[in-house]
Write a structure and sequence with these properties.
Order of helices and strands: HEEEHHHHHHHEH
Structural class: alpha+beta
Number of domains: 1
Strand order of the largest sheet: 1-4-2-3
Distance between the termini: 19 Å
Largest sheet: 4 strands, antiparallel
Length: 183
């Protein structure tokens, strides 16, 4: 999956809606650094391994800068659906795609905090905020995601009073890529 795939999906969206869509491909490693979603922009983002394996598709509107830039790369108690929580709740799935030793490291850290992956999203809510930050730092998921995942960003101008355009773009990308985790 690459810039070409992003361009293909953007073209489908533009043909359907006549709305211009800018695409940016961020390859895993040094180049995987989420852009800043400007105040007058909104968009859809994709985390994926390759053309056949998409993990998450989500959207952020102009008032959700944190959703675009940071929430999917770290843990917190309050944000309900993040990529990090999906990873830690589905370590068995992740073992299909990554070195087992890497995923085992996450399992061992969760055990140190008496957390179970099968109920992770509920259990993290019970932790003290300081412990969640400590756990997030120990897991270092931001670096892991940046080193192991590609990202595509689809960016739209925020010139409507509603978010129907981002809703449609997100649905189109989900339909085309069939992500493993929910939006």
């Amino acid at each position: 999956m690459s810039q070409e795939l992003g361009d293909k999906l953007s073209k489908k969206f533009e043909e359907l809606t006549k709305i211009k869509c800018k695409v940016k491909f961020l390859s895993k490693g040094v180049n995987h650094r989420a852009t800043t979603l400007k105040e007058n922009k909104k968009g859809v983002y994709v985390f994926f391994l390759n053309e056949n394996i998409c993990f998450k598709v989500g959207k952020a509107n102009s008032n959700s800068q944190a959703r675009w830039n940071s929430q999917h790369y770290s843990l917190d108690k309050s944000t309900p659906s993040t990529f990090t929580k999906s990873i830690l709740s589905n370590l068995m799935i992740m073992k299909k795609y990554f070195e087992e030793a890497e995923i085992k490291k996450f399992e061992n850290i969760l055990k140190e905090y008496n957390l179970d992956e099968s109920n992770f999203k509920q259990e993290i809510k019970k932790l003290d905020k300081t412990l969640v930050k400590e756990l997030s730092n120990k897991l270092n998921l931001r670096e892991w995601i940046q080193n192991n995942m590609n990202r595509i960003e689809f960016i739209l101008d925020n010139n409507t009073d509603n978010n129907l355009d981002t809703n449609l773009l997100e649905a189109l990308v989900q339909f085309e890529l069939n992500p493993i985790f929910e939006g």
